[in-house]
């Protein structure tokens, strides 16, 4: 058992340190610079950011991109984005640059800016949808005109030390790398043009870097046992315990209570788990060839509307999903041979907004699964998910020995533990291999 725990610990450590997500092994955010023209003292580039993560979006208030210039470059102008600070441009006379900082910080513009300040795929307040959810909205772009820079592909120096906040911490960016030049189609689609030079930067996410505690927890119930297995106590850390609001508090009628804070600080409903989000998995019905699960997501944060929310579940029977009611569903197949993971997300204009805490702060769905005769069982907690992610962050599950058990199934605790052990070993194998 000790060996098992240390193996599991090492596995967790490695997967965090390498920013590796076993359910989305190829997920990343790629930032591409295409130089489209040389100027007398530098170049004009189109910078495109693609969110290639299957189920992790960059939510409001949006991305912040930073880098360090290699030489004394300045930004003459930008279209479709802006730097947060101009910096010291005192040595310029007449034409003043947009930004003279050695380490500029760039943010997207808000929707609705005048037409002449817009650029294709800009001005979404920095929100990037997840790739698996809406690939067309998973891209953001702006144009930048750089001065005091190299003026040919031999003399230009790549910016260094890229940083991405999305909107909080969690992303780590690699170095810029020159890649084959991007080709573009002209608007009439009859001619191809080519960037004069292209470089890419790849950024990956690690929940370990993003937050100390989970951001969500999971609770269980079933038709075959009246026990409701709650979220673990203090699943998300209890540091907000002293400023939480009871659900019957008079304070809730105060005007402005729901106004989000600049730093996104939550205002949580008091619960024993102190999580902003809870996912509940209820094993609802048993048919001859099918079984049915009800999934609900509850928001406990009075200061947050979750737009474009996503839920990822890993369960061995997800290879036989027959119908999903009132959520969109997409199987994720992170490894060719394993089809046990899927993502749920809201239907556009129907329930893609998970409202702030309160009577409207929940969304729910039912899932119909076809029993696979070789593996299906209600015993040993098999009917409950192995992993759950909300908005790309892993949620805390209850301890296995508290799952609602099928009455009269002997040795259930012991065999559940060995099941977890086998599952963990299997994952370890897949990860290292
Ligand atoms: C980034 O993600 C894309 C899409 O999944 C993938 O093709 C590419 O190889 C990834 N890049 C890196 C450096 O992992
Ligand atoms: C560079 O990034 C773009 C997306 O912005 C991607 O399509 C392309 O494959 C990347 N190139 C390399 C060599 O990684
Ligand atoms: C630089 O440009 C020249 C022609 O203008 C081209 O032959 C060469 O491949 C380019 N080098 C790089 C690294 O893009
Ligand atoms: C890279 O950026 C980070 C944050 O902006 C900064 O702390 C660090 O010193 C920078 N490193 C270099 C080599 O510029
Ligand atoms: C959430 O959205 C509703 C309706 O659009 C709005 O009235 C409310 O103020 C929003 N709450 C937060 C916390 O942004
Ligand atoms: C994975 O399972 C889904 C059902 O959830 C099915 O539609 C899909 O075809 C399966 N994909 C593979 C590659 O087995
Ligand atoms: C369940 O899914 C697997 C893999 O997609 C398939 O081989 C099997 O026939 C399915 N079982 C049922 C009962 O549909
Ligand atoms: C229901 O599940 C709980 C929690 O695992 C267990 O303690 C209890 O014995 C089960 N009830 C029955 C009737 O088996």
3D architecture notes:
The chain has 433 residues and is mainly β. The chain has two domains: 23-209, Immunoglobulin-like (Sandwich), CATH 2.60.40; 212-420, Immunoglobulin-like. It has three helices and 26 strands. The strands form six sheets. Strands 1, 2, 4, 7, 9, 10 and 13 form a seven-stranded antiparallel β-sheet that branches. The chain has a six-stranded mixed β-sheet with strand order 15-14-16-17-24-20, with no helix packed on it. A hairpin with a 3-residue loop joins β16 and β17. α1 crosses α3. The longest helix has 21 residues, at 412-432. It is elongated. The model is unreliable at 1-17, 410-419 and 428-433 (pLDDT under 50). Bound molecules: 2-acetamido-2-deoxy-beta-D-glucopyranose (8 copies). One 2-acetamido-2-deoxy-beta-D-glucopyranose is lined by residues 318-319, 321, 331, 333, 339, 342.
Characteristic key phrases:
433 residues, Immunoglobulin-like, seven-stranded antiparallel beta sheet, six-stranded mixed beta sheet, 3 helices, disordered N terminus, disordered C terminus, binds 2-acetamido-2-deoxy-beta-D-glucopyranose
């Amino acid at each position: 058992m000790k060996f098992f725990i240390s193996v599991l610990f090492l596995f967790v450590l490695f997967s965090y340190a390498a920013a590796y997500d076993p359910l989305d092994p190829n997920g990343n955010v790629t930032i591409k610079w295409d130089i489209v023209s040389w100027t007398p003292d530098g170049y004009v580039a189109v910078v495109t950011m693609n969110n290639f993560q299957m189920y992790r979006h960059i939510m409001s208030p949006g991305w912040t991109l930073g880098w360090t210039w290699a030489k004394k470059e300045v930004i003459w102008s930008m279209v479709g984005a802006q730097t947060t600070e101009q910096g010291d441009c005192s040595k310029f006379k007449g034409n003043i640059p947009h930004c003279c900082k050695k380490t500029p910080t760039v943010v997207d513009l808000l929707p609705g800016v005048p037409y002449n300040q817009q650029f294709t795929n800009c001005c979404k307040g920095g929100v990037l949808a997840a790739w698996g959810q809406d690939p067309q909205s998973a891209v953001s772009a702006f144009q930048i005109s750089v001065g005091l820079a190299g003026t040919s592909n031999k003399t230009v120096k790549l910016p260094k030390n890229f940083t991405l906040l999305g909107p909080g911490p969690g992303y780590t960016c690699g170095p810029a790398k020159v890649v084959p030049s991007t080709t573009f189609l002209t608007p009439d689609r009859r001619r191809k043009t080519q960037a004069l030079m292209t470089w890419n930067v790849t950024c990956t996410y690690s929940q370990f870097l993003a937050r100390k505690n989970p951001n969500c927890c999971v609770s269980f119930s079933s038709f075959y046992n009246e026990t409701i297995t709650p979220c673990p106590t203090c699943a998300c850390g209890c540091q907000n315990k002293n400023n939480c609001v009871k659900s019957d508090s008079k304070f809730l009628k105060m005007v402005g209570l729901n106004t989000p804070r600049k730093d996104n600080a939550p205002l949580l409903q008091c619960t024993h788990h102190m999580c902003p989000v809870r996912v509940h998995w209820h094993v609802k019905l048993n048919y001859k060839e099918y079984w049915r699960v009800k999934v609900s997501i509850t928001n406990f944060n009075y200061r947050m509307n979750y737009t474009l929310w996503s839920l990822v579940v890993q369960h061995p029977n997800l290879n036989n999903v027959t119908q999903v009611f009132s959520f969109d569903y997409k199987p994720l197949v992170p490894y060719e041979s394993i089809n046990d993971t899927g993502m749920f997300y809201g239907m556009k204009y129907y329930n893609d907004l998970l409202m702030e805490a309160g009577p409207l702060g929940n969304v729910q769905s039912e899932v119909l699964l076809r029993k696979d005769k070789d593996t299906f069982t209600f015993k040993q907690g098999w009917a409950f998910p192995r992993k759950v992610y909300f908005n790309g962050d892993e949620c805390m599950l209850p301890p296995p020995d508290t799952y609602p058990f099928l009455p009269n199934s002997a040795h259930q605790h012991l065999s559940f533990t060995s099941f977890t052990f086998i599952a963990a070993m299997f994952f370890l194998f897949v990860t290292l291999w």
